[in-house]
Design brief:
Blueprint (H helix, E strand, L loop, with lengths): L3 H6 L8 H5 L2 H4 L9 E5 L2 E9 L5 E8 L9 E7 L10 E2 L8 E8 L5 E7 L6 E2 L2 E2 L7 E7 L10 E2 L6 H4 L10 E2 L5 E3 L2 E11 L3 E10 L14 E3 L16 E9 L2 E7 L6 E5 L10 E2 L17 E4 L5 E5 L13 E9 L2 E4 L3 E4 L9 E8 L2 E7 L3 E7 L1 H8 L12 E5 L7 E4 L13 E7 L9 E4 L6 E7 L5 E7 L2 E6 L11 E8 L4 E6 L2 E2 L11 E2 L13 E3 L5 E7 L5 H11 L1
Antiparallel strand pairs: 1-28, 2-3, 3-4, 4-5, 6-7, 7-10, 8-9, 10-11, 12-14, 13-14, 14-15, 15-16, 17-18, 18-19, 19-20, 21-22, 22-23, 23-24, 23-25, 26-27, 27-28, 29-41, 30-40, 31-36, 31-41, 32-33, 32-40, 33-34, 34-35, 36-37, 37-38, 37-39
C-alpha cells in the first residue's frame, strides 16, 4: 500500500474562501457546520432565538430584532411559528412595536394550559440620553411581560414586574430612578414553580453586574395576571456576585437539581465562568466560585460570552461554552459542549466536544436554546444577524454523558495498530490505504509513550524523512510533544500543554486533526488540553494550505522503549471516544 492516500486525508488544507467553502456540498455534509442548519430569521439584527413547544405540538420562537444593529432604537421583539421542527418558519409577528420604546431580550415560558408568557426589557420611560449625550437604551427601564393564549398569534396588554430598587440601582448613574438590566435564556420550571435569572447593572454601560432571579410559585396555574405572586431573589439588598471577580458578572442562567436546589452559571472577563448553588430555591446562594469540571478540579475556560446550561429530559445536563481563556467578546467559534452529571449534590462536567462551527473564524455564534422532542435534540444559535436551528446528533450527547463508562468495544476507523520493537527505531513501515477523503475530514493518532528525558527534537513519528511533505511528531524545547504538518516550506504545527508530560509515567496521547472546524487538539491521559495558565487556547487552527504529501515516503517510528503503541484512525475521533480509549489503556 502506498502513501498517496495521506494526500487525500489532508485535502481540507486547500486554500479557498471561507464563505464558498462553507456553502459547498461537502461543507453541508458536516452537521456541525452552522451553514447546514435551517434559518429561523435573517435581518439587520436578530438575537436570542428561544423556543417553546406549544399545546398544538408546534414550535414558537421569540427573539429580538431590528433593522439596524444591536442597541439601535428600532429594536423590538417578535414571535414566529414552525410546524415542521424548525425547517420553515412563519413571518414574524410583533409582540412589541418597532416604533418603540425599545423592547428586548424576550424569554418565553409555556404553562400547562398552553398559555405562553414572554419576559423582556422595555424602555418604558424612553430614556435615551445620559448627561445630555445619546446612549444605547435597550437595557434601561422596566422588566415587563405579556402572554398569549393562542400559541403566539396575539398577545395581551403589557404588565410590569415588581423590580425592587436595591443597592446596585441606588449607585447607578440615575441613583435608582432608572434601572439597568437584561436576561438571557428561558425560565425554568421545577416542582410546580417557575424561576428565571437576570442581570442588574450598577453603572452604565455593562459595569458592576450582579445576578437576580424572579420566582413565582403560582404562575403555572393562575390565569389572572393580577393574582400572580412574585419574589425577587436573593433576599436582601445585594445580588449574586463576588467583588474579587471584577465588574463584569452577568448573564446568569440556571438549572434545577431537584427539590429546592438550583445551580447557576454566568460569564466574567477573567477567562472563566463562575458558578454557584442554592439550596433554598434561590433565596440564598453559595459564594460564587470559578466553574470547574469537577469540584475543586480543573477550571473551565470561557471568554465574555453566554455560558448556557440546560437540564435535559433524562435528568442530565448540557453546557454550551467556548473552551478558551479569552477576556473579550471575541472568539465564539467553535462552540463546545460538555455533559453534566449530578453527584452528591455537585456538578461534574465531561471533557468537551466541538458542537458547532463556522469556517470563518471571526464568526461569533451565541445565545443558544435547546429543544427536545420525540428523542431528538435541536439547538438554536445566532450570529446577531442570522438565527439558525440545528438538529444535534444524539450519539454525540450520549457520548459526553458516558465518558466515564469503560468499554472494550473497538473504535471504528482504526487502520494501523502496532507495537514498535523495543530495540532500534522502526523504519519503512507500510502506511495503510486510507479511503478517498472529501474536504473537512481528518484523522487521529493515538500513542502510548514514556519519555526518558525531555531533550528537544526527539522523533516519535515521521513521514517526512525523504521529502518535505508529511507528518512529524516530536518533542520540543518546552518539554511538550508537537505535531507538524509539512508541505514544502509551509507548516502547520501545534503542541500539547506544558507540564502535563513527565518522565515518571507512561502517557496516553490522542492527537486529532479535525478538518471540519480545522482544529488540532491534544488529549492526554483522558483530559483535553485547554492551554492551562500558559496560553489562551489549548487547541490550534490548521492553516488553509495544500498538503502535497510524497507517496513514496516511509513511516519512521521511535523505538518501543519510548513509543509503546501506535494507532492511526482514518477519521477524527470525538473527544468522548478518545477519553474511552484512555480508560481502555489503563
Amino acid at each position: 500500500m502506498i502513501l498517496y492516500s495521506w494526500k487525500n486525508v489532508l485535502l481540507f488544507f486547500v486554500s479557498v474562501s471561507a464563505t464558498l467553502a462553507s456553502t459547498s456540498p461537502t461543507g453541508q455534509s458536516d452537521p456541525r457546520n452552522i451553514r447546514s442548519g435551517s434559518i429561523i430569521y435573517e435581518h439587520g439584527y436578530c438575537d436570542q432565538p428561544y423556543v417553546v413547544l406549544t399545546k398544538d405540538g408546534n414550535w414558537l420562537c421569540v427573539f429580538t430584532t431590528g433593522s439596524g444593529h444591536e442597541g439601535q432604537s428600532s429594536q423590538y421583539i417578535v414571535a414566529t411559528q414552525s410546524r415542521d421542527q424548525g425547517q420553515t418558519w412563519s413571518e414574524p409577528a410583533e409582540i412589541e412595536s418597532p416604533a418603540g420604546p425599545e423592547a428586548s431580550w424576550a424569554m418565553p415560558l409555556i404553562t400547562p394550559s398552553g398559555r405562553v408568557y414572554v419576559f423582556y426589557d422595555y424602555n418604558g420611560d424612553a430614556i435615551r440620553t445620559l448627561n445630555e449625550k445619546p446612549i444605547r437604551a435597550d437595557m434601561l427601564g422596566w422588566y415587563c411581560y405579556k402572554y398569549s393564549d393562542d400559541s403566539g398569534l396575539t398577545w395581551s396588554k403589557r404588565y410590569r414586574l415588581p423590580v425592587r430598587v436595591t443597592a446596585c440601582d441606588r449607585s447607578n448613574d440615575w441613583q435608582g430612578r432608572v434601572q439597568l438590566m437584561w436576561g438571557i435564556g428561558k425560565p425554568i420550571v421545577f416542582d410546580g414553580k417557575m424561576i428565571f435569572g437576570f442581570t442588574k447593572l450598577g453603572r452604565y454601560m455593562l459595569d458592576q453586574g450582579e445576578g437576580w432571579f424572579f420566582r413565582s410559585d403560582n404562575i403555572l396555574f393562575e390565569t389572572n395576571p393580577d393574582k400572580i405572586k412574585w419574589q425577587m431573589l436573593p433576599d436582601g439588598d445585594h445580588g449574586l456576585r463576588r467583588p474579587v471577580f471584577g465588574s463584569v458578572q452577568e448573564e446568569q442562567n440556571l438549572v434545577w437539581l431537584g427539590g429546592e436546589r438550583l445551580y447557576c452559571i454566568y460569564r466574567t472577563t477573567m477567562g472563566y465562568p463562575v458558578h454557584s448553588y442554592s439550596q433554598d430555591g434561590g433565596h440564598t446562594w453559595s459564594t460564587p466560585e470559578i466553574a470547574t469540571y469537577t469540584p475543586c478540579g480543573k477550571p473551565i475556560k470561557h471568554p465574555r460570552a453566554c455560558p448556557r446550561i440546560w437540564r435535559c429530559q433524562n435528568g442530565k445536563f448540557l453546557f454550551w461554552f467556548h473552551n478558551h481563556g479569552g477576556k473579550t467578546y471575541d472568539d465564539r467559534n467553535p462552540v463546545w459542549i460538555s455533559g453534566g452529571l449530578l453527584k452528591k449534590g455537585k456538578m461534574y462536567w465531561s471533557q468537551p466536544e466541538i458542537l458547532l462551527y463556522d469556517e470563518n473564524p471571526k464568526t461569533r455564534m451565541s445565545y443558544p436554546d435547546l429543544i427536545e422532542q420525540d428523542g431528538h435534540y435541536y439547538i438554536t444559535e445566532t450570529q446577531k444577524s442570522v438565527a439558525r436551528i440545528h438538529e444535534i446528533d444524539a450519539s454525540l450527547l450520549e457520548g459526553v454523558w458516558t465518558q466515564e463508562l469503560k468499554s472494550s468495544d473497538p473504535v471504528e476507523g482504526c487502520v494501523l495498530s502496532i507495537h514498535p520493537q523495543k530495540g532500534s527505531p522502526s523504519e519503512n513501515i507500510q502506511m495503510p490505504t486510507l479511503p478517498e477523503s472529501k474536504e473537512r475530514q481528518g484523522f487521529s493518532i493515538e500513542m502510548q509513550l514514556q519519555l526518558s528525558n525531555f531533550k528537544a527534537g526527539q522523533i516519535l513519528l515521521d513521514s517526512t524523512a525523504r521529502s518535505d511533505n508529511g507528518i512529524r511528531i516530536q518533542t520540543t524545547e518546552k518539554k511538550t510533544v508537537e505535531i507538524v504538518l509539512q508541505s514544502g516550506r509551509q507548516q502547520t504545527r501545534w503542541d500539547c500543554d506544558p507540564e502535563v508530560l513527565t518522565t515518571s509515567k507512561e502517557h496516553h496521547i490522542v492527537i486529532t486533526v479535525d478538518g471540519g472546524p480545522k482544529i488540532i487538539m491534544f488529549l492526554i491521559d483522558g483530559l483535553l488540553c485547554d492551554g492551562g495558565m500558559y496560553r489562551q487556547f489549548g487547541w490550534g487552527r490548521c492553516k488553509s494550505q495544500q498538503m502535497n504529501l510524497d507517496p513514496v515516503n516511509p513511516l519512521f517510528l521511535a523505538s518501543g522503549k519510548t513509543l509503546k503503541r501506535l494507532r492511526l484512525y482514518n477519521r477524527p475521533l470525538r473527544t468522548s471516544e478518545a477519553v474511552r480509549l484512555y480508560h481502555q489503556s489503563q
